[in-house]
Amino acid sequence: MSTVDLEPRQIWNAMPGWGIVTDLTPPELIASRKLAVLRKVLVIALSAVLALCVAAYVLVSLQHRAADSALSSQTNANLALQSRTNSYSDVVRIEQNIQQIKGQLSGLMGSDVDAETFLASLAKALPPTVAVSKEDVTLSGAALKAGSSQSSANAALDTSGHVVIGKVQLEGLSTGFAEFSTFADNLSKITGVVDLIPNFSQANVSKLVSWKLSFNVTDQVLSHRFDASKNGGK
């Protein structure tokens, strides 16, 4: 039993020499074909670059126009704001004058004392059995400007650390020494009262206690209503 060769035979294997192949295309033609392909590639690449350049130019132009439009709008807005600001120039000038006056008033009235509140605190310290017959109040802003608490002979007794700006001298009568002592104790508790010195004696006829006392007043009694740095200062 014989085997059949099922492989297809190539036609050039049928006869000797049929399998020889040669390319007789001229080299000039091959070179021209390659050059044509290269030219196509270069044209396509240049076209792509040109398209990108055109697209970039258009994009930059649009952005430039948008920036010009925004700048023009902002310039118009600034001109409008400046025009409105000029209409309020009088208000600004008045406000500056007010601030200047406040500063001057603060310097002028820096030693202003809330006298009503201070005198009311003195009256509140009086017991029912003690009466004031004479009151002498002396206040000065010179010591405050000098920044010294040594404005009186009694200032050495002051340990409050505040500046003494005045002195108060009181005279009166009381029904007894205890009542007067209570009055003096009440005075010593008032803010701004320092260096309190009492002096009293027994009356012979009426048997009332005649007393005198003096004390210094510190800068704690200042009102600060005219301070320039105080919000809402008058």
Automatic annotation (TrEMBL):
Transmembrane segments: 41-60
The keyword Transmembrane helix appears for this protein: yes
Entry superkingdom: Bacteria
Key words, A-Z: Membrane, Transmembrane, Transmembrane helix
Protein known as: PilN domain-containing protein
Organism from which the protein derives: Jatrophihabitans telluris
Origin organism lineage: Bacteria, Bacillati, Actinomycetota, Actinomycetes, Jatrophihabitantales
